[in-house]
Amino acid sequence: MTKAIKDFIHVKEKIGAEPYLPKILDLPHLKGAVQFCRGCDLYRHATQAVFGDGSPHAKWIFLGEQPGLVEDRLGLPFVGPAGNILDEALKSAGIERNEIYVTNAVKHFKFERQGKRRLHKRPSGVEIKACQPWLNAEIDVIQPKGIVCLGSTAAQSIFGTPFKILKNRQKLLEHPSRKGLLIFITIHPASILRKQNEDERREEMQDFIEDLKALKKNFN
Ligand code: URA
Ligand code: SF4
Predict the structure, then answer these.
(1) pTM, whole model, 2 decimals?
(2) Which of 175, 190, 209, 219 sits most deeply, having the most CB atoms within 10 A of its CB?
(3) Rounded distance between C-alpha atoms, residue 165 and residue 145, angstroms
(4) How far apart are the CA of 113 and the centre of ligand 1, in A?
(5) pLDDT digit string (tens) for the chain, length 220 residues
(6) Which numbered atom of ligand 1 lies nearest the CA of 151?
(7) What is the best residue among 44, 108, 126, 138 to mutate for testing ligand 2's pocket, by most ligand atoms within 8 Å of CB?
(8) 37 CB near ligand 2 (under 6 Å)
(9) What DSSP line would sit under 24-76, residue for residue?
């Protein structure tokens, strides 16, 4: 067996995105390299990887779960229905989308086929962990003041263990290993869309806006 084949097998067997990070760590290089990531199996069925997008000088990184159906097609984070909810809430809280950076804990869309439809499936703990090097690189490059965790997968990616969102929403915590980096907890905007009726959706939206207004007070 040649060394090249041995190296190839070694990389294939190693779980996690680390071996796929580019040598030059800036956003354009990261965005290019993520398309070649094989750090877990999710690249196999997704259309493309969806990297973060937004201001490279953002004070806050907004962290979602994984791209959805629309994001998978368009290659940008939070541009589908959940993104519309996020945009509306940001606007109501007085935060401009172009002053923040938006990304996901997992960069490939995970789904289950049901006939012709592709239905969102939650990423596993192993997949969340495998994808962390990309998020870590985004944090290293952007050096934000803090990270807004949109829902439990985002919080699990930061804290490394399953995390109760509702008990912690609006809390300003500290990153477990990056001293001084703030972590703000709120819900995932898609959870509003999953509510049964209009009244519940309106209520949830109001609460989400209140969370973002609380964040806005600590924004700068
Ligand atoms: N949900 C997410 O968590 N991220 C997206 O980019 C879209 C929907
Ligand atoms: Fe790599 Fe993350 Fe995609 Fe898995 S989900 S292949 S770790 S970019």
Answers:
(1) 0.94
(2) 190
(3) 21
(4) 18
(5) 676 665 555 455 568 999 999 999 999 999 999 999 999 999 999 999 999 999 999 999 999 999 999 999 999 999 999 999 999 999 999 999 999 999 999 999 999 999 999 999 999 999 999 999 999 999 999 999 999 999 999 999 999 999 999 999 999 999 999 999 999 999 999 999 999 999 999 999 999 999 999 999 999 9
(6) 3
(7) 108
(8) yes
(9) S-SHHHHHHHGGG--SSGGGGTSSS----EE-TT-SEEEEESS--HHHHHH-S
For residue 173, the CA-to-ligand 1 centroid distance in Å is: 23
Residue type, position 131, single letter: C
Report the residue count for the chain: 220
In the chain, the domains with their CATH numbers are 3-219 (3.40.470.10)
Ligand 1 centre distance from Cα of residue 67 (Å)? 4
Which residue has a Cα nearest atom 8 of ligand 2?
107
